[in-house]
Amino acid sequence: MSERKKVQLKDIAKEANVSVALVSYVLNGQHQNRIKKETAERIKAVAKRLNYRPNHFAKGLKTQKSHTIGLILADLANPFSAQLARIIEDELKKYNYNVLMGSTDEREDKLKDLVDVFTNQQVDGLIILPTENSEKEIVQLHEVDFPYVLIDRYFSDYPFNFVVNDNHSSTYLTTKQLIKNKRKKIGFITIETDLFHFVERKRGFVEACIEAGIDTENRIQEIRFGQLETGVAVGISRLKQVFPDLDALLFATDILTMYGLKYIIQHKLNITNDIEIMAVDEAKFYDIYSTPITYYKQPLEEMGQKAVRFLMSKIEGNNPDAIQEVLKGQLVIR
Amino acid sequence: MSERKKVQLKDIAKEANVSVALVSYVLNGQHQNRIKKETAERIKAVAKRLNYRPNHFAKGLKTQKSHTIGLILADLANPFSAQLARIIEDELKKYNYNVLMGSTDEREDKLKDLVDVFTNQQVDGLIILPTENSEKEIVQLHEVDFPYVLIDRYFSDYPFNFVVNDNHSSTYLTTKQLIKNKRKKIGFITIETDLFHFVERKRGFVEACIEAGIDTENRIQEIRFGQLETGVAVGISRLKQVFPDLDALLFATDILTMYGLKYIIQHKLNITNDIEIMAVDEAKFYDIYSTPITYYKQPLEEMGQKAVRFLMSKIEGNNPDAIQEVLKGQLVIR
DNA sequence: GTGTTTTGTTTAAACGTTTAAACATGCTAT
DNA sequence: ATAGCATGTTTAAACGTTTAAACAAAACAC
Question: Which of A80, A203, A259, B181 has the most CB within a 10 Å radius?
Answer without folding.
Answer: A259
